[in-house]
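Hi V.,

You were right to ask for the full record rather than a summary. Here it is.
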Amino acid sequence: MIGRPGRMEAGRFHAWRAAIRIARRDAWRSKGRSALVLAMIALPIVGVSAADITVRSAQLTKQQRITRDIGAADARVTGGGMGHQPLLQSPVDGSAVPADRKAAEDGGSAPQDGQDDVVDPRVALPPGARWISDQQTYARIRTPSGLLDTEVRELKADDPIAKGLLDLYRGRFPAAQDEVIATRSFLKSSGLHVGSVLRARGFDRAYRIVGSYELPDLLQAEQVTALPGAFIAAYTSAMKASGGLYDHGGLSPSYLVSVPGGFSWPMVEHANSLGVVVDSRQVMLHPPADADVPFYRVVGLPGSGAQGGVRQAEAFAAPATVGGLAILEVCLLAGPAFAVGARRSRRQLGLVGANGGDRRHIRAIVLSGGLVIGMVAAVVGTLLGLSLTVLLRGVLEEYVGKRFGGLTLRPLELLAIAGLAVLTGVLAAVVPAINASRQSVLSSLTGRRGVRQAGRTMPVIGLGAVCLGGGLAVVGSTRSDSVVVVGLGSGIAELGVVALTPVLVGAFGRLGRWLPTAPRLALRDAVRNRGRTAPAVAAVLAAVAGSVAVATFATSQDRQDRDAYEARAPRGVYAVSSGGDQGRELGAVRAAVEKRFPVTGRADVWRLVYGSKTCDLHSDGAGCGGFQLRVPAANRCPAERADDTAQLSLAQRRSFASDWRCAGDGGQAAMDTDGGVTVGGPAVLHALGIRDGAAERALARGETVLFDRRYADHGSIGLVLIGDMGKQPVAGPDGPSGPVRRVPVHMAAEGSPYGLVAVMPRQAAQAAGFRTVPLGSYYTTSRMPTGAQQQALTGDLAEFGSDAQTYLEKGFRSSKNLVLLVLSIFAGLVTVGAAGIATGLAQADAEPDLKTLAAIGAAPGVRRRLSGFQCGLIAAMGVVLGAVAGVLPAIGLRRAQLRQEWKSYHAAVDSGWGAALDVPHVPVVVPWGTLAVLLVAVPLGAVLLAAAVTRSRPQLTRRSDG
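Predicted structure:
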């Protein structure tokens, strides 16, 4: 008796070892079935591990982010842009404010006694520091197609201090003053290559491109880099001499500094006292305590406020919910695999029982099969996920426009993913193991299958889970704003739908009476064998639900961004203006546009000029006149008249949200004008797509059309005349003072379209005492001009030295989000894979029925059609149910996001500035295109695949071998 417990433990160990050996041999013997089961488990692991490695690789470490900003330097020093006055700086992101904010508001930063107000950052460098300069400007570079606006940088790129700022792709770094390197994106856009000669418009120097490079954080940047002193100074002088548009010296230079011992926080504070901002590697890696940072005492701690929480919730919402659905899907995909495998191995399990094995041994063998295949799937899935990431790394980096920091592997996370595969493999084998152990030895050996009636317990549990999960998702999105609650509720609801699958499959059976022979037989077989059909349908359901959840969330977010986009003109409209030459060259400019672009219409525009001197647009030179639209006192927002809105009552501040006087401007116009007043006729409205017959008739009669009613004053607008912009008096509470010219107006039905304030006919301007000067034209096009056409036009304009301002409305462009991209790829991959694998396993289980058909003389075509429709019906039922189940989590997440935005909006309303914000708009858009593809492509693919792989003349075997 003493040694009995030890012998029992040894016996259990030997029993499990034997069970694992039997499971391993059975898996190796049935390679095809094992491969399908392995793929069923490994496929989600491939997606989850690839997504984990991709997202982690895209997340830069703090050291990597600093290196991409300042290279190998210890610090970057830059002028603060506020003169010589002391600054307060954030140690993290380089944000700075004046130390004496009151003095800055009173004009304390103005230079005195002729002192140059530009700070040389090098005054803050400690003794022994070594530095290199880094400066940028913009220039128009000549290309084979015309001109290309390009950023030109001066940097000694091969200096050890600059290591990490850019990566040389081909060629070498510049070694002479007439050599440059260019980004790959610039070479692609310009049509130039390494070895080409580079020239800038209006600049007689030529440069040889000796290499190409890329900026790790800006792969799409179009940039050229030369040695310090090789381009910017000479180019600026040439532009000033010719009066060109680019007559500035570019951005003020910054300096990359190497300091023995690093640039400490006290050294940063000393530099701030001199008006210099410092991005220090040492400080960013080891920032001082918040209490020791004066900047935080003035501005506040970083990340505070409700908006930070909203952004974090939005960033976490999609990955958390879809990741939870992916984990759930691993469990659902493994279940049907082992259920089919156990049924295919029932004869072997019967032999174990016939030779003295009891139910524990049967359960151990089936569970060991899950353990063995789960372990192999964990290793294979993780390795394939890693390989997939390596293969797609370049594509993903190009898509988001940034290089990864490296291939980042988180061993604990990958181990958890692999462990999940093993765990789900074992758990998924539990129910098949119990069912196999309950079968009699005789039924297992003969292979006879009865028709089992669907139980009533699981549908009831499933219905309760759907109600509970839906309720949690609703509460999470409307009451608690909790993403976790939304995800949990969505998962429970999807599990409920899975539990209801047998009942839903039975409901589909009622459609059989309207189907032809082959699909009717397939549907009835699926309904009769619900134990086989339901797990396969559940697998496809889970995969499709994840795809639909991702697609719904991404499509809804895209629609929200599209609705929030403010266009300056209708898509394809091209605006060109020349406010610096009094319109003398507009004829040549218009001819060039009409030559290069597919123009369908033109609307000419003029600008108002007041005074005896005709000056450039927005000129404040001596003797240049101007005007400003006056807002009547009755139309001014009450919040603007209050010294401090906090002194107003809460009810008063909230009332401003519905007050039209407090609304913001109507947007930015495609063509810049004085005061928003555009001089033109009805053709301007036609070009901008404004359909207002009354406004067109008013312009034809010579009346001014007003779009912004804030300026309306008893049927007219007031223009405050300013005789000399250089001597403009200080504006009072009601705006600038001066004589007011009244102009009668017609109030348009549409408010401020495309930034228009008013359109004034030329005769109305002349009647009001203004002169008009040609400004530009709006062009409508038959199609969007190509990049080559735009470069050709830029080159034509440069040929006669035009500095015309141009704008082409390209419309909304979808943003590129790496996380949603990875999740979409993963969900789509699992959807197609799960449908194919699950239906393939169902077909393998239905092989005895196919053999029976062959035995009674069915033609090969009937056999193929029946097999194809069996798999197609499984895929179709799974797609339909998954489409419905996948919309729920996306709706919950969008509702939670809407609630967060309403909180921010109400906070702005309570502060008195709600009218300047748009009412929260978070639409839920069902991706009907994606659903249509899933509803058609997945079932059709399953039908064709099953029909293709079905043998037309199988080898007949004895029923006992089935």
